[in-house]
Amino acid sequence: MSSNEYSIRVNELGKRYEVYATPRDRMKQFIVPALQRLSGCQPSSYYQEFWALQDISFEIRKGEAFGVVGRNGSGKSTLLQLITGTLAPTVGTVETNGRIAALLELGSGFNPEFTGRENVYLNAMLLGMTREEVEVRFDKIASFADIGAHLDQPVKTYSSGMLVRLAFAVQVQIEPDILIVDEALAVGDALFQKRCFSRIEKLLSDGVTLLFVSHDQESVRTLTHRAILLKGGRAVSMGTASQVLLAYRKLLHEEESAYFAQLTSKPLNDGAASPIGSDKKENLVVLESSELTDKELVQDTPLGRIDQLSFGDGGIEVTSVKTFNRDNEPCSVFYPGDVIRIHVECVSHLETDCINVSVRIRNREGVKIYSWGTLNQDMQILAGLREGDVFWKRRIHVGERFDVRLECDCTLGPNLYEIQAAVSYEGRPDYTAQRLLHWKDEAAFFQTLIRQDEYFFGGLSDLRMVAKW
């Protein structure tokens, strides 16, 4: 890639901190090694090394939207600070082309004693604008921030939401070549977030490069083209946004499972326990209790060899997901008003109850449209809002194959839809004690079309509006 084709280039980047046990060790490090070098001795170290970031390399093309995901402490904010130049790297290089606008920390660059108006001028001029340019754009900045009379109050009196409103309003008005956003928008209210995302989409359409950090997976999927996943300061996955977010969900699931494993003290039944991947059926554990431990959940099962689109603790597997029409005929194209039937087939490798089979539907743009499962219906039955058998109480046996048929009216706008399927163990019938046994991305697809001349509407979903006069 030539230099004029990229906005950001990161090469073998690393940031190391020196961690001292006591202030005395810090003082020793300042004095003793220098004296040892003068005397020809090997200098001593009085600190421990901590690498907040290590061996990070990627390139972002001009006009590309790039996401950064990872748990707290994974190195996301450090990476952004290195790119913006507020931190100096220990090793490696960062190259950027163009004016950068960065929204990293609430109120960064603001003087708490100055008013909002004064800080707008101060912040914008620090970002390279002249006073005349600020005056031309000031009304737009004030309108976007929408904090009213508080604009002439000291910033130290602002709430976190007001701070981020003002900061974002300034950053997007400097017409950046690169916009860097780090979680700050999460503190805004829903209306302000909508306004921010609309503005970001406008900047992207104008060719601005976006580097976006968020824990909101749907926002990353919707706004970015590619992404990187960080763990412990290192890159563990990089690729399309959907691929990286799947790896992120797997990582979160693995860490959650490890956490619950530490809490689990219930021993395995006698004769239990073959490791994942064993092919001997006689090693399967038959559970006599509805309480599943981590070790019991990951017995001999095909999930020991999880494919790229699946993850989970194992124990019960989603084998297939199919869509049918009102007449139970296989169908993958629906029109508003049709009935959509989704059949989720599963096979169990253990004996248990407390199971939930669910689906999530996303459109082509990656936006989650709907999620629902058998537990949602069970909760209504248990609350006395509807009648029927509670699936959560059903006993499922080793080797049993079972299917769940989910049905709904098609109220979706024209698009291509992905069905994600999952089977989970629910310790309580309220989604507060969930263990994911098997999650399957891209389990099935279907398309919705619209008949322009008889049943037409615009948008994601049909609200079945009526007109009266």
From TrEMBL:
Protein keywords: ATP-binding, Cell membrane, Membrane, Nucleotide-binding, Transport
InterPro entries associated with the record: AAA+_ATPase, ABC_transporter-like_ATP-bd, ABC_transporter-like_CS, ABC_transpr_TagH-like, Bact_Polysacc_Export_ATP-bd, P-loop_NTPase, Wzt_C
Signal peptide: none
ABC transporter domain sequence ranges: 36-257
GO terms under cellular component: membrane
GO molecular function per UniProt: ABC-type transporter activity; ATP binding; ATP hydrolysis activity
Domain of life: Bacteria
Xref: Pfam families: ABC_tran, Wzt_C
Similarity field: Belongs to the ABC transporter superfamily.
The protein's name in its UniProt record: Lipopolysaccharide transport system ATP-binding protein
Organism, scientific name: Chitinivorax tropicus
